[in-house]
């Protein structure tokens, strides 16, 4: 069998390579829309796996930035222009910002140089906080995001914990270890004889908020106690 963990491209490549070998994927993009399965409840083909929450969490990240940086009237958003989720993400983010009375500054980034230039632009335009939208390509560039956010002194929230662990201010998103654990359980069941078609795609719903207090201090930012109290982990 094949365990396709990582970017959506891993699952797509595995699916293109075989129609018979069982595949277990982990993805943050819609597996039906990508053609990995016919439906979430009845995969029917040779693939099943874990569907992580992504776009639906974008509004919460805007709320977290509003709470952490209440004076930020303009919130920057960095999106991957090539991601199939970008349109839905922008709808969610725009609606959330409007409800909170905040303006959005949209920056497209698909490379490390785009990230640096994006933060430079937002700093020049007085953006008070940044939301990095979920995108698989950003995971490998997390050091560039964290470095640029620190260089320009802009509080930034990310979509997985790894960013906060590496020095990002805050992260709010699905737990990757939990999603991979669920994929491992499915892998074990298939190896023991379960049929892929009998295993519906599961949604990974364990979400965690991580706050890096060292980074907050370096930004001169005081995180409100109610927000700290809701954090699943605080890096000191």
Outline the structure in words.
By secondary structure, the protein is α/β, with parallel strands linked by helices. It has 2 domains: 2-53 and 175-205, Response regulator (Rossmann fold); 55-173 and 208-235, Rossmann fold (3-Layer(aba) Sandwich), CATH 3.40.50. It contains 10 helices and 11 strands. The strands form 2 sheets. It has a 7-stranded mixed β-sheet, sandwiched between helices. It has a 4-stranded parallel β-sheet with strand order 1-2-3-9, sandwiched between helices. Helix 3 links the parallel strand 4 (74-79) and strand 5 (103-108). Helix 2 packs parallel to helix 3 (86-99) and helix 4 runs parallel beside helix 6 (142-152). The protein is elongated and about 55 Å long.
Structural domain tally? 2
The whole-angstrom Rg is 19 Å
Which CATH architecture of the largest domain is right? 3-Layer(aba) Sandwich
Count of helices?
10
* Overall 3D form: elongated
Which CATH first-tier class of the largest domain would you pick? Alpha Beta
Q: How many individual β-strands? A: 11
Taking the sheet with the most strands, its summary is: 7 strands, mixed
SSE string: EHEEHEHEHEHHEHEHEEHHE
Distance between the termini: 42 Å
| Lateral strand order in the biggest sheet | 5-4-6-7-8-10-11
CATH homologous superfamily of the largest domain, by name? Response regulator
Q: Ranges with pLDDT <50 over ≥5 residues?
A: none
């Amino acid at each position: 069998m094949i365990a396709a963990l990582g970017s959506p491209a891993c699952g797509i490549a595995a699916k293109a390579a075989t129609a018979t070998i069982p595949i277990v994927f982990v993805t943050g993009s819609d597996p039906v829309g990508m053609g990995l399965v016919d439906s979430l409840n009845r995969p029917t083909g040779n693939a099943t796996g874990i569907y992580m929450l992504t776009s639906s969490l974008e509004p919460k990240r805007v709320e977290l930035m509003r709470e952490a940086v209440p004076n930020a009237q303009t919130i920057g958003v960095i999106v991957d222009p090539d991601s199939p989720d970008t349109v839905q993400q922008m709808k969610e983010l725009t609606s959330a910002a409007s409800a909170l009375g905040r303006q959005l500054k949209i920056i497209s980034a698909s490379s490390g140089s785009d990230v640096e230039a994006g933060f430079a632009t937002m700093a020049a335009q007085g953006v008070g906080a940044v939301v990095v939208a979920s995108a698989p390509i950003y995971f490998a560039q997390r050091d560039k995001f964290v470095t640029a956010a620190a260089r320009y002194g802009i509080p930034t929230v990310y979509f997985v914990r790894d960013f906060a662990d590496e020095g990002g201010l805050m992260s709010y998103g699905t737990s990757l270890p939990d999603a991979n654990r669920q994929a491992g359980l499915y892998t074990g069941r298939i190896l023991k004889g379960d049929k892929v078609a009998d295993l519906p795609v599961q949604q990974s719903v364990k979400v965690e908020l991580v706050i890096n207090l060292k980074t907050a201090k370096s930004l001169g930012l005081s995180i409100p106690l109610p927000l700290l109290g809701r954090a699943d982990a605080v890096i000191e």
